[in-house]
Amino acid sequence: MLHRRQTGLEYQHTRTSVHLINYHIVFCPKYRRQLLVGQRKSRLEEVLRGVARDNKWQLLAIEVMPDHVHLFVSADTRTKPEIVVKRFKGRSSHVLRDEFKELLRMPTLWTRSYFLSTAGNVSSETILKYIENQWGKKF
Asked: H or E element: which one contains 47?
């Protein structure tokens, strides 16, 4: 079941910027094993929410499937996208492998690979049209 924290996508304000940086992140356990079930699934969701909270990111949606994880995260402008992924995967691996000793039999919990896409309030087509229409010219 998809868990949503917030339905609207609001712009974030800092002293020097206004931004809306949302990432769709997907990552999988090593060998795509179907081990994210039961207590492991519940604990993983708690850990991922904690990572978002500790980094002051908004976790807009989370879906833990038996063999992969989907996150929709609103991040800040100071953190590189790959660091966002690294923090989620790093802490969750550490905590889950510490609490569920059977996971120590695997060389690592997560594959090195991941999917990352950006999203915002408007589509890429809308942005292109906006830019093209600034002077009434197409590039």
From this structure: helix 38-54
